[in-house]
């Protein structure tokens, strides 16, 4: 008997909260500037997202939150509240509302502090799971657009890019910035050129790894919302290793040799990476002869062709020349 009363009481309480959230949404939606009254109350509002088994309440809370994210002061106050984990939890547990969650995140990511918090709270692994494994094309495209926005943040963007490069070729980040839709098509299609080797094996490996990491972190975060996310120090999902290729500066050397007329997207960055790789190899006590031969070959050829007559080019050419001369002895 008491159990029935408790259940009925809880159901009534949830219904009252749902009605309150509906009213809050309509008041803010219809009266510009009223959202300022929410300042200082975001921890309570966002915590409602973590109530499991109450999908309607979670959706109503999301709708209410979406009405305040256009206000800069509200976004700043949300950043101070440290509540992003609740948005990420509902992103994973409520697939039917993923588009709305992404809309909220898109608005919140205009604040650098929230972008930084998002990395610590696991946003990148949750979003990678959507980009790689979602069955909804719109969700995947909106996720790519969100990644593009995070990457362009002046302070935290480079760190976001570095983490994503652990899972996806760097060319995907450029595609997300230029066209989110094109980046999704690129992920789904197999390609092989000097700047991208992407096939079923690579796609499956990345997708499975991301799905497993997401589920493991979700279970931990559900138990402890304050838990922080980070990649294991020995983590390696290096897609290039799937094909056994030698890649320097995002360029696959074997394919570049076979396609010498290929126009690189970032030729100067490639030369810099070659120089750095060459320096690392020559200082190694047990260098890979195959890789050192490839890097020296390209460095020499690029400088020989006069592609970039710069101090960097001369330095690279000099190092390669010295290496070639040393091999004669």
Automatic annotation (TrEMBL):
BP terms from Gene Ontology: endosome organization; receptor-mediated endocytosis; regulation of early endosome to late endosome transport
Taking every annotated instance into account, which residue ranges of this chain make up the domain DnaJ homologue subfamily C GRV2/DNAJC13 N-terminal?
A: 184-258
Q: Which UniProt keywords apply?
A: Membrane, Transmembrane, Transmembrane helix
The residues that cross the membrane are 306-324
Output the Gene Ontology cellular-component terms: endosome membrane
Q: Does the keyword Membrane apply?
A: yes
Q: Which Gene3D superfamilies does the annotation name? A: Leucine-rich Repeat Variant
Q: Entry's Pfam families?
A: RME-8_N
- Supply the name of the protein: DnaJ homolog subfamily C member 13
């Amino acid at each position: 008997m008491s159990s029935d009363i408790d259940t009925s009481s809880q159901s009534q309480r949830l219904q009252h909260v749902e009605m309150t959230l509906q009213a809050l949404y309509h008041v803010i939606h219809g009266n510009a500037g009223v959202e300022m009254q929410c300042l200082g109350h975001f921890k309570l509002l966002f915590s409602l997202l973590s109530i499991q088994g109450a999908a309607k309440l979670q959706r109503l809370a999301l709708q209410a939150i979406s009405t305040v994210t256009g206000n800069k002061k509200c976004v700043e106050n949300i950043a101070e509240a440290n509540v992003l984990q609740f948005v990420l939890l509902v992103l994973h547990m409520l697939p039917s509302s993923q588009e709305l969650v992404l809309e909220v995140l898109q608005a919140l990511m205009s604040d650098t502090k929230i972008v930084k918090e998002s990395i610590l709270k696991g946003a990148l692994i949750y979003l990678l799971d959507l980009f790689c494994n979602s069955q909804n094309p719109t969700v995947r495209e909106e996720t790519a657009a969100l990644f593009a926005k995070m990457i362009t943040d002046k302070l935290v963007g480079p760190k976001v890019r570095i983490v994503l490069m652990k899972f996806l070729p760097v060319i995907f980040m450029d595609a997300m910035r230029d066209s989110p839709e094109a980046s999704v098509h690129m992920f789904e299609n197999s390609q092989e050129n000097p700047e991208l080797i992407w096939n079923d094996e690579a796609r499956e490996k990345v997708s499975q790894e991301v799905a497993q990491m997401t589920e493991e972190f979700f279970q931990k975060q559900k138990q402890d919302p304050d838990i922080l996310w980070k990649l294991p120090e020995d983590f390696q999902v290096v897609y290039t290793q799937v094909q056994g290729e030698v890649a320097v500066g995002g360029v696959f050397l074997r394919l570049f040799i076979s396609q010498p007329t290929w126009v690189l997207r970032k030729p100067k960055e490639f030369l810099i990476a070659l120089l750095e790789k060459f320096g690392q190899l020559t200082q190694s006590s047990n260098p890979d002869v195959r890789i050192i031969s490839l890097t020296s070959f390209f460095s020499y050829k690029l400088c020989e062709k006069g592609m970039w007559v710069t101090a960097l080019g001369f330095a690279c050419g000099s190092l390669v020349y010295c290496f070639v001369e040393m091999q004669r002895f």
